Amino acid sequence: MVRVRIERLTKLYGSTPALLELSLTAEAGEFLTVVGPSGSGKSTLLRLIAGLETASAGEIFFNDEPITHLPPQMRDVGMVFQNYALYPHMTVFENLAFPLRVRKWKRSAIQERVHAVARLLDLDGLLGRYPRELSGGQRQRVALGRALVRSPRLFLFDEPLSNVDAQLRATMRTELAALQRTLGITALYVTHDQTEALSLGDRVAVLIAGRLQQLAPPAELYMKPASVTVARFIGTPPMNFFTATVCCGALSVSSATIPLPDSLRLPEDSRWLLGVRAEALTLTTTDELHQLGNARVQGWEYAGYEILLSLEHPAAAFSPILVRLPASSRLPQPGEIVPLWLIPGTWCLFEPDSGVRVFPP
């Protein structure tokens, strides 16, 4: 296992930055996912770690060994790409054996290793087939096996599941996570899919415009985003935001008042952004809930196991406000005015100018 440490890594294409002073660490044996929109520098980061690109500045360490200037073949990295990159004229066995033949392994050792990896990935009965005769999931397992067959110190996954259908993607996520835990190999997994990032990663790094926005375990990232930028990127749907003002030691949101915890002392009349996840809002109340005033129904989206309700609210910083309701809920009609309630202890507070979260700490 290897610990990957990145210090102030920068990559420029001409004057255009792809990565800017990026620093992060993937611990030995960790499954670290890197998520961000297109053009955020995710794939560039993997290519720099693999040695397929040259850094403009900064350092990469494997354990305490600087490898920034080592050629790719000396880094002992297994990389799995989005497009599988299988040799179409080779059988599954030959694709798996190719990295070992390049390294001049003995034939008996190649046979033993390929069959061991094939059993691990449930490819035993497919070794004589060609890539064109395989399903998308089978091709992905062959690509994974080709990276695994030489027992690399580090796995790098560059959106490997984006070309398979949704059902297979869910299955492959489970298989990948189980395989990584079994092998204990450090893995960095790049994706634009938040579900993949949150479900696979021991920790998740959010990368936007070449800069690291937050690095945290999935639950912390979802419930305590470091900034408005992260909160609006992570989560489906993204976090809701209300404009709020401090009045008499409480938060005033439109016509409603939310008590502040004793530990949080804010200047009178100061303005803030109140962040609330969709599942922390409801249309029905108990004595423990905080009122957020009334909202107008814009529409709703039925998802089988839940309903996502879109609301227009006078204090919404970004429209619409989205509420996650059980599928059995009564559906209000578009244009209907409904009461909106907040579950206590489920909100975040952000500074409106910088966007930085100030609560919870």
What can you see in these coordinates?
Helices cover 23% and strands 34% of the residues. It has 8 helices and 21 strands. A 6-stranded mixed sheet has the order 6-7-8-3-9-10, sandwiched between helices. Strand 20 and strand 21 (357-359) form a beta hairpin. The longest helix has 18 residues, at 166-183. The mean pLDDT is 93.
Relevant terms:
single chain, 361 residues, alpha+beta, six-stranded mixed beta sheet, six-stranded antiparallel beta sheet, 8 helices, 23% helix, 34% strand
Brief synopsis:
This protein has 361 residues and is an alpha+beta fold. It has helices at residues 42-50, 92-102, 107-120, 136-148, 166-183, 194-200, 218-223, 228-233, and strands at 4-13, 16-26, 31-35, 57-62, 65-66, 77-80, 154-158, 186-191, 203-208, 211-216, 240-247, 250-253, 256-259, 271-276, 281-282, 290-302, 306-312, 321-326, 337-342, 347-350, 357-359.
Topology:
Layout (H helix, E strand, L loop, with lengths): L3 E10 L2 E11 L4 E5 L6 H9 L6 E6 L2 E2 L10 E4 L11 H11 L4 H14 L15 H13 L5 E5 L7 H18 L2 E6 L2 H7 L2 E6 L2 E6 L1 H6 L4 H6 L6 E8 L2 E4 L2 E4 L11 E6 L4 E2 L7 E13 L3 E7 L8 E6 L10 E6 L4 E4 L6 E3 L2
Parallel strand pairs: 3-8, 3-9, 6-7, 7-8
Antiparallel strand pairs: 1-2, 1-4, 4-5, 9-10, 11-12, 11-14, 12-13, 14-20, 15-19, 16-17, 16-19, 17-18, 20-21
Helix pairs in contact: 2-3, 2-4
